[in-house]
Amino acid sequence: MSLYACISALELGIIFSFVAIGVFFTFRVLDFPDLTVDGSFPLGAAVSAVLVSTGWNPWGALGLSLAAGVCAGLCTAWLHTHLRVVHLLASIVTMTALYSLNLRIMGRPNLALMDQETIFTWAARAFSLSPGSVILWVTGMLLLLVGTLAWWFLRTELGLALRASGNNPIMARALGISTSGMIWLGLGISNGLAAFAGGLYAQAQGSADVGMGIGTVVAGLAAVIIGEALLPTRRIAGILLRICAGSALYRLAMALALSLDTGEAWYSLRPTDLNLVTAGLLVLFLALSSRNKRRPS
Predict the structure, then answer these.
(1) Quick check: 148 pLDDT over 80?
(2) Are 253 and 6 in contact (CB under 8 A)?
(3) How far apart are CA 209 and CA 200, in angstroms?
(4) Separation between Cα atoms, residue 198 and residue 47, nearest integer Å
(5) What does the DSSP 8-state code read for residue 82?
(6) Which residues are registered as beta bridge partners of 207?
(7) CA–CA distance from 15 to each of 77, 145, 199, 276 (Å)?
(8) H or E stretch covering 274
(9) Quick one: three-class SS letters along 171-228?
(10) Full DSSP string of 24-80
(11) Is 78 exposed, middle or buried (CB count within 10 Å of its CB: 0-12, 13-18, 19+)?
């Protein structure tokens, strides 16, 4: 694997770390299987790309991407808490609706950013960063900020209430915690982070596509599972660190697998085998994670 491919994989790993943290909030903290992120990721990309292409401040475009993702998560929460739709079905309904909404926002299936000002061009000019390193620096600093905020939030009274609602909702309600309100909060945070990652991705890659969200939730889950398999810990800081490490390792493993030159044989890996490689990696690390849980402490 070339150095360029390695750097590109790390950039993707950092960007999808935001998605992984959001998935951690729903699947692990809240115990709510949410597929809305497959729609909120391209939603954030669509909002960011459209606003940047019309001359908006790129930081403001990222902020609105995050807000749009929060709204998407709240729609799923409303379907589940008010209409009593099963959580998985509620997220599928929202994800399906977001596909058409993203098409309407962009006005076309894809949108390219041609010589537009992004947060990366701004940072390269403001801090004299090279084009080859600016994405790593900017996304790394943003991930450090978001990770610190997530660590602080989960240690607050509200964060503890969110964790209690996912761990034991009956006991949480007995203690006066509104579990419905915690669902709204958790889904808003999760999908806001996913849409923020989509906005970052669009500005980093210079384009947005309506189909770019396919497999986003799988990538987030893979990062969480890989982190759990390799770095078992119960501390919040350690959990967030292993999620980010899992996201980077997941992208590096995929890039390495798809860069192997195995010739023209039937068993050779091709870019079209991406989902197959993803499934194989998930099975491998799920097995490792399950083995670690069965091991006596």
Answers:
(1) yes
(2) no
(3) 13
(4) 9
(5) T
(6) 112
(7) 25, 13, 10, 22
(8) helix 274-294
(9) HHHHCCCCHHHHHHHHHHHHHHHHHHHHHHHHHHHCEEECCCCCCHHHHHHHHHHHHH
(10) IIIIIIS-----THHHHHHHHHHHHHHHHHTT--HHHHHHHHHHHHHHHHHHHHHHH
(11) middle
pTM value is 0.91
The token pair that represents 260 in the structure block: 């192997």
Q: What is the pLDDT of residues 81-120, one digit of tens each?
A: 999 999 999 999 999 999 999 999 999 999 998 888 999 9
Q: Please, what is the Cα angle at 37 between 65 and 97, to 5 degrees?
A: 85
140 contacts 127 by C-beta, under 8 angstroms? no
Instruction: Give the C-alpha separation, 295 to 297, whole Å.
Output: 6
Residues, the chain, total?
A: 297
Q: How does the average pLDDT of the chain come out, rounded?
A: 89
Partners of 209 in beta bridges: 110
Q: How far apart are CA 216 and CA 75, in angstroms?
A: 19
Tokens representing residue 66 in the block: 């995050």
Cβ atoms 19, 193 nearer than 8 A: yes
